[in-house]
Structure of Glutamate-1-semialdehyde 2,1-aminomutase:
Amino acid sequence: MNTRKSENIYQEAVKYIPGGVNSPVRAFKSVGLNPIFVDKAKGSKIYDVDGNEYIDYICSWGPLMLGHSNEDVLSGVEEIIRKGTSYGVPTEIEVKMAKLIVDAYPAVEMVRMVNSGTEATMSALRVARAYTKRNKILKFEGCYHGHSDSLLVKSGSGTITYGVPTSPGVPKDVVKDTLVCRYNDLESVQKIFKEHGNDIAAVIVEPVAGNMGVVAGKKEFLEGLRTITKEYGSVLIFDEVITGFRLAFGGAQEVYGIEPDMTCFGKIIGAGLPVGAYGGKREIMEMVSPVGPVYQAGTLSGNPLAMYMGYKNISILKENKNIYKELEQKAIKLENGFKENLEKLNVKGTVNRAGSLVCLFFAEGPIENYEDVMKCDVEKFNIYFKELLKRGILLAPTQFEAMFLSNAHTDEDIEYTIKASYEAMEIAFDK
Ligand SMILES: *Cc1c(COP(=O)(O)O)cnc(C)c1O
């Protein structure tokens, strides 16, 4: 595999951009490689500047449910750009977008558009704190909600803890109000609510965790969160930045039949443009300025181009709900293929799948929380990753991310992936 052009660009990139990348996971550092630089992509395929072709399972980390440069999503885009790129004055497409989201999510009565998932969760927490007049928030180990200060925490030792910053630059004082519990462990939540319940403004959770591989929330766990937050008057926030419009059209909340008080969106609702959104019950959302006192703003929020693409993306999903079944069938095929491979090669591994999100962990199951995920053999994964890359398959360059399937992935893509995965495991595990 020739990657000379990518190498050259990378050498130039590191001079001007920290690590040569604008988001750390793109660096391929965890697998001991330098990044490939992309030229273009179409459908399920991505092409680097050296002309190598890969079946893409990153898909921009989730937004591209319909694959790269989908013609239906793109049609009409040029006209929109030519009209103007941003106005700082409202446009009708923002209203259409809001209505589309509100119609799809019964728990979302009003919605505010922002520019990223990070902004969505950060803003939702501010609103929840103002609404409850409380300061503490509760999150779960292994769930990622973007990189705002109060959410950049890990748990200390023990199952129930006060947050410890995961990054220098985050003051201890900022995270002192962030409590951390173990995912899928309702008991730890009940304990912490006994102690702090009346000070907890919000519980924020990925209903299906997609940032520690794929770990689905157990139904009893999520239902338990709903019950306990109601009991104590805390706001339950579902971070559906990955799962929204992916797990089902109505997101994880539709699949589990649970209505959170607030919901965060991102990724798919922007179709690959920078978009996020947060919404919820009218009473809560009317806290937001200019109706209410909570300040939250954005020069480019509700950008017409982003709204147009996002609106198209979601509308296509709305009109073609069979896509969800098709996508799940593809994911099941991948899941079964991986399981068969593990068995044939006698390799200790676990395949977790939720809808079209799949993860092959190199550790024995069940994998239900962050601790379980951390048992994975990362060195074997790194070899596995490189062998797949050589065979024209692009995974997220870490064991701890999901494989994102798009509707553009063909049966042929999946079959080839299963075969290549077998060969890569043979090499990684010396079989
Ligand atoms: C990606 C992600 C975010 C952050 O979104 P950005 O657009 O990267 O800021 C938040 N929550 C979850 C669940 C995510 O997967």
Remarks:
- The chain has a mean pLDDT of 96.
- The radius of gyration is 21 Å.
- Residues 286 and 292 are 6 Å apart (CA to CA).
- The pocket of pyridoxal-5'-phosphate is lined by residues 116-118, 121, 144-146, 206, 210-211, 239, 241-242, 266, 276 (CB under 6 Å).
